[in-house]
Amino acid sequence: MYIAQAKRKENIAEYILYLWQLEDLLRALHFSPEAIDAQLAQPASKDMESRNTLLVWYMGIVNLLKEEGKTQSGHLSHTLHLIADLQDLHDRLMQLPAGKRYRELFARLAPELPRLRVAIGKDDISDMELCFRALYAAMLYRMKGDSERENTVNDVIELISPAIAELARIYRGAERGEIDLGDEEEVE
């Protein structure tokens, strides 16, 4: 919970990936309150009150996964809505003068998207969701030691990471009111 809150404030991309990882971790723990408490809440708590707060938060995510029918796979609507917001920002930055730097980063990535769609196996998702799925897949491949599959997306990750980092930076700045997307100047 505390990590998620910090990531949400600082970097929307890391927040999304963190929640996806947490979804999979909760599935691996079979949504067991006892396992979640022992593996997640207790080690991250300083006292019983924070432990209970964490357990309630984790179980809230468990309930959302169950309500949304995503106990076996899939991602919470919350994160998919955030990715849709990032796709909207992407679309705006592709048109606005303020998006010059972002457009340059995305232009390096764009030619690789068709190949990435084949590697990920998803034709019907937005460019931003594709990028997040690739980032998450690469992270999972690395954790599992699956170097063969990791290599299929690794070269594209070097193109995705800077574009998503810049998009997340602009998102944070716009959300905080530090960046005016209507400004005729390039976003710095």
Shape: globular
* Secondary structure category: mainly alpha
Biggest pleated-sheet summary: none
Helix content: over 70%
Q: Uncertain runs with pLDDT below 50, 5 residues or more?
A: none
The SSE order reads HHHHHHHHH
Alpha carbon gap, first and last residue? 31 Å
Mean pLDDT: 91
Helix run count: 9
How many beta-strand elements? 0
Rg on CA atoms, Å: 18 Å
Beta-strand fraction estimate: under 5%
Molecular structure report:
By secondary structure, the chain is mainly α. It has nine helices and no strands. The chain has helices at 2-10, 12-28, 33-41, 48-67, 77-93, 100-109, 113-120, 127-144, 147-175. Helix 3 (33-41) packs across helix 4, helix 6 (100-109) packs antiparallel against helix 9 (147-175) and helix 8 (127-144) crosses helix 9 (147-175). The radius of gyration is 18 Å and the shape is globular. It starts with a helix and ends in a 13-residue tail after the last helix.
